[in-house]
Design goal:
324 residues, alpha/beta, 41% helix, globular
Length: 324
Amino acid sequence: MTESDKRKKGCCLVFALLDHSLKLSLCQFSSVADMESSALLYNQLKTAEPFFLLAGPNVIESEEHIFRMAKHIKTIATKVGLPLVFKSSFDKANRTSSKSFRGPGMAEGLKILEKVKIAYDLPIVTDVHESIQCEEVGKVADIIQIPAFLCRQTDLLVAAAKTGKIVNIKKGQFCAPSVMVNSAEKIRLAGNPNVMVCERGTMFGYNDLIVDPRNLEWIREANCPVVADVTHALQQPAGRKLDDGGVASGGLRELIPCIARTAVAVGVDGIFMEVHDDPSNAPVDGPTQWPLRHLEELLVELIAIARVSKGKQRFNIDLSPYRD
């Protein structure tokens, strides 16, 4: 090899190292920027008054439907003055039946959510079911949601935390609220302080859930924002028989206002609700999606309740003997 060839090879090696270093720097810059963006949104939600809103259709049915729902829900949230994070799922992996509609899948679903995010300038929340999904989902979603059945899965929690995005952990239907202290801590120990926990009901025998208002207070021990899922909390898992002999999840839509009123009176930081423009014909969880036509009416009432409640303040109980 001639001296000229050696110099050329050396220059190529230097440029390759510089290129690799630059890529690493850009990656680190992107991670830092993502963390800063997440921290900003997290603080906005944490300090929202009287509460913030996570809302949207259960699953992506089509790009046209998602755009229509995002437009209407943002208009309503802006009108009533609530910070909104738009929600929809790209894949409903936890279905009662293998025949159930699941959505467009991760690749197509994330493309649609990214378009909505840009078109309507909305932060996005969507759920993951496997650790391998977190990195790609984190490129689009502002909040990564951990499904209730997976709330204790350490590898999934850590993978979600490492994206730097806010992580919303739904409390398992089988869990005491104290479990969420450990789940939230797993996120923090992975280097991500931006975590919130969500109450979505507790199993009550078979095919039914109840909402224990005490959980909304006890779950605060996780030391982070508390969200109440006022729609899934009224599911009746596998409680609806189908004409073909199978089963699907039922629900008690008429009680959504009851649970929502209770949650804001207790003083939750956020309300999660699935909303649909035609819930009777929704392909997934129709019985527990709130009608779009009644969204503004319900939110106005919830805001009024939250403003007069002192639920976010701890009641100072004086146990000294009462004297006349």
